[in-house]
Design brief:
By secondary structure, the chain is an alpha+beta fold. 42% of the residues lie in helices and 18% in strands. The chain has helices at residues 8-45, 95-103, 137-147, 164-175, 179-187, 201-212, 235-247; strands at 50-55, 62-66, 71-74, 87-88, 93-94, 117-121, 126-132, 152-158, 220-223, 228-230. It has a five-stranded mixed sheet. Strands 1-2-3 form a three-stranded antiparallel sheet, with helices on one face. It is elongated.
């Protein structure tokens, strides 16, 4: 009996089995390719440094996330490594930066907010956490922007990574009677914080936390949904990001 002469149900079962088999073959080949890329990359690096491999829809490239948080691209044979950004020409979106933001998102509820300088502006219903060095120029720009914003609670983790003076200023701000005023006075008005002594273990813990979160530059901003914004963004963009979280 030919296939066309078989009952309809039987033909459907055969077609379903063939489709399932083809799907398994394709899935197996994808995993095989991912594994081959991983092996090729680690052979080049000389260490088990690959965290994940994902095929992208761009030019046969594979996204390779390394265990140090770096994102690079290669082909299925790992014959080259591309360290840079993919820009989607249709949407003009920086695909790489968007992916990095996804990979670097955190669980906001795990942040030790008691180690941060807290400011509440207006109702404070919108919440952000920032990691900032007091001698960071872009942190000062961010500080001036935040001073003009309303309805936001800001947790500033003092994160002195630029110089010994950064540590000194951070310690004095943390030990001030009014931490928020001391921070604003310096970051917005340029008024150096007065010398003060207290337990500054929170600053040490902030640096350890920042390293764990792979924060290599300041300012780094976290929205309440865990989204990371690496670097300074204009006030208008930050407002949109905050409102986007509030709307969800």
């Amino acid at each position: 009996m030919t296939l066309s002469a078989q009952p309809v149900a039987a033909r459907r079962n055969v077609a379903h089995s063939i489709a399932l088999l083809l799907g398994l073959v394709v899935l197996g080949s994808v995993h095989a390719s991912d594994e081959a890329v991983k092996k090729g990359m680690e052979a080049f690096i000389g260490a088990p440094a690959v965290e994940s491999v994902t095929r992208t829809p761009y030019g046969g490239l594979y996204e390779v996330v390394l265990k140090n948080g770096q994102l690079v691209y290669t082909d299925e044979k790992a014959s080259f490594i591309l360290d840079g950004s993919i820009i989607d020409t249709k949407t003009r979106r920086d695909v790489t930066q968007g992916r990095m933001n996804e990979l670097s998102a955190i669980d906001f509820s795990t942040l030790p907010l008691a180690q941060a300088v807290k400011q509440v502006k207006g109702k404070g219903s919108r919440v952000i956490a920032t990691f900032e060095d007091p001698n960071c120029g872009y942190c000062k720009r961010l500080g001036k922007d935040l001073a003009e914003m309303d309805d936001v609670t800001i947790y500033t983790f003092l994160y002195p990574i630029l110089s010994p003076d950064s540590t000194s200023k951070s310690n004095n701000i943390w030990c001030a009677k009014d931490q928020a005023q001391a921070w604003r006075g310096w970051i917005v008005d340029g008024k150096a914080p007065a010398d003060a002594d207290c337990d500054v273990s929170a600053i040490v813990k902030n640096v350890e936390l920042g390293q764990k979160l792979r924060i290599s530059g300041t300012p780094t901003i976290f929205l309440a949904d865990g989204t990371r914004i690496g670097g300074y963004v204009p006030a208008t963009e930050l407002e949109k990001a905050l409102d986007g979280v509030k709307a969800r």
